[in-house]
Amino acid sequence: PIGDLLDRASQRSDKLHSLSTTLTQELDSHFPPIGRAIMPRPSMCHTSSLQTPNDKEQALQVSESDLLSLARSLLKSWADPLVILSVSANTLPHPAQSTISNKLQELQEHTKNLGDGLDVLSGKMGPAAQTVSFLPYSGGNDIGQDRLSKLANFHFLLSCFRRDSHKIDSFLKVLRCRAAKMQPEMC
Amino acid sequence: SPPGKPTLTSCRSPEKETFTCWWEPGSDGGLPTTYRLFYLKENIETVYECPDYLTAGENSCFFSKNNTSIWVNYNITVVATNELGSTMSDPVDIDVMYIVMPHPPEKVLVSVLEDKDWPFLRVSWEPPQKADTRSGWITLVYEVRIKLEEKDDWEVHLAGQQRVFNIFSLLSGGTYIVQVRCKPDHGFWSEWSSSTYVKVPNYFHRENSV
């Protein structure tokens, strides 16, 4: 049933966001904010064109299929950038480079697993849930020439993923509680 | 002299719907000093001023639901002003999704029940009233801690999302203190709830459970 699928999906999205938080902390541990502040970098995430709710009232007014469509669109939009992050991690000028690289592999696997699960779920939630917005990443494969710009751009891309994974997690948990109407103790 | 530099000390949201920021004044330069909080919202040029200096008490700014967006970066600065000049705090960037710290759980009840002549404690509670767990907008996990009244060391149990927790292996005749706290899936632990005391009846086994 959909409730179980949503339960599992929200556990995976929870894990995905936690992973992105751990990765950010790993990165921050050796990359002071000052270094980031002075670096020019893109000001907007590549997913910012997607209109998503920005508070509880808006989120609770979105239909189930639209919430799932938003979550899938966000997740699918990270397929390519995660590859770029993963490739860049191999040569990242950072003391915790190998840890970051391993964590990114884990992140990619979790993203794929969650994506597969949401594909199955959307198949059970009607045509509107099948809609996926195309959010191209136009940042190119190369995240920077010198050490500081590499780190700043890497950090920025990761911060975008962290935010989007939190959105995905929030949307799926709202969906999960809607599906759990018959089991009030679940939410 | 002009006022000293104020410091933004923290910003917290209790339920992912509103948030509050607090600051520490610097020196007042021996003159009456006023404090104002200004903020920028991601990709918006407008400079906003704190919408509510009163609700959360002195040296604070409260952002109501209408003034709170999640997944949006707020760049916040406090300005101290007296008749000889103004001094700005360092700016702080926040996103509400990272500053959620709920109030403690409420209605903590502890009852002594029996299972085949063995007493055990059933602890139950409610989520903090403001946190809307029902819609799924916020997901809370809980921790229960217990100790004998006269002891110092707590025994801590992670209760996950459930709101009932049973505790076994009790000391016959012991008086226990129980507290509960909660945390959003991605955020900070609340304070512990106030203490609930419970006395375990005497039963033939005297075992030290805690």
Main features:
heterodimer, A: 187 residues, mainly alpha, Growth Hormone, Chain: A, elongated, B: 210 residues, mainly beta, five-stranded antiparallel sheet, four-stranded antiparallel sheet, 45% strand, 4_helix_cytokine-like_core (chain A), signal (chain A)
Overview of the structural elements:
Chain A: One of its GO terms (molecular function) is hormone activity. Chain A: It is found in: Secreted. Chain A: This is Prolactin. The complex is a heterodimer of chains A (187) and B (210). Chain A is mainly alpha-helical. Chain A has a single domain, classed as Growth Hormone, Chain: A (Up-down Bundle). Chain A is built from seven helices and no strands. Chain A has helices at residues 2-28, 33-37, 56-61, 64-76, 79-89, 97-123, 147-179. The longest helix of chain A is centred in the C-terminal third of the chain and has 33 residues, at 147-179. Chain A is elongated and about 50 Å long. Chain B has no helices and 15 strands. In chain B, the strands form four sheets. In chain B, strands 3, 4, 6, 7 and 8 form a five-stranded antiparallel β-sheet that branches. In chain B, strands 12-11-14-15 form a four-stranded antiparallel β-sheet, with no helix packed on it. Classes of the chains: A mainly alpha (187), B mainly beta (210).
Q: Proportion of β residues of chain B?
A: over 45%
N- to C-terminal distance of chain A: 17 Å
CATH topology of chain A: Growth Hormone, Chain: A
Overall pLDDT level of chain B: 95
Could you say which structural class the secondary elements and strand pairing of chain A correspond to?
Answer: mainly alpha
Gyration radius from CA atoms of chain B, angstroms: 23 Å
By CATH, the architecture of chain A is named Up-down Bundle
Indicate the radius of gyration of chain A in whole angstroms.
Answer: 17 Å
Q: What share of residues of chain B is helical?
A: under 10%
Helix segment tally of chain A: 7
Distance between the termini of chain B: 59 Å
* Tally of helical segments of chain B: 0
Oligomer: heterodimer
- What structural class should be given to the helix and strand makeup of chain B? mainly beta
Q: How many separate domains make up the residues of chain A? A: 1
Shape of chain B: elongated
Order of helices and strands of chain B: EEEEEEEEEEEEEEE
